Amino acid sequence: MRRIFFIVLVALLYTSLGSAHAAMLPGGKPEAAPDTLPVPKNVKDMKFFVQRDPNSNTVVYELNKTAQGTLDEKDPIHPFWIRYAEDGAQKELNYIQRKFAYGLNTKKTGTDSYELRFVCYSKLVLRLRKGPDGKYNVYTTINQKEAILDRVFVRIEGGTFWVPNVLYVELKGRDAVTGKALAGRFKP
After folding, report:
1. What is the CA radius of gyration of the chain?
2. Number of domains forming the structure of the chain
3. What is the pLDDT of residue 3?
4. Pick from 128, 152, 142: which is nearest to 175 by CA?
5. DUF4833 domain spans which residues (predicted)?
6. For labelling alongside 117, which of 3, 28, 32, 96 has CA 20 to 30 A away?
7. What does DSSP assign to residue 187?
8. How does the average pLDDT of the chain come out, rounded?
9. Which residues form the domain of 178?
10. In the predicted model, is pLDDT for residue 23 greater than 70?
């Protein structure tokens, strides 16, 4: 069931409009160059972002705060689009995108600690925690090391709207202890 949701996520990502590619995949499909895609800026509480083929539209995950400035414990992360391939405007996810693709299931696991899982792919465990500095970060495991997650990239080559061919998912972040850059890939 979760695999189906992941497929839906990738399908929705895959079908977003626009293009910002220079290279081509076999068969003539454009290839996103992950390191040349835009990096969201001026998002005060951004924790990480997701990008994928075939364009530069990006889903940003930021802390969701109450009107009093505290973390919303019922819904601690707010995902939204930055539509770089269109006009660069921010846009809320629609119902299908929230419930079957880019949304997160959250569970409070302790004081200032939450488990986060994508609605489409629950095998990737993310943890939102408040650090000793009073700031929240999203943690995951990259190359068997705990890392602060910065970016997720989904590489797609072919397939169909409902069953895209995902070559890999790439995670980038920083070692939680040393701050050294980490990157790792897996095939879902």
Report:
1. 16
2. 1
3. 55
4. 142
5. 48-182
6. 32
7. -
8. 86
9. 46-186
10. no
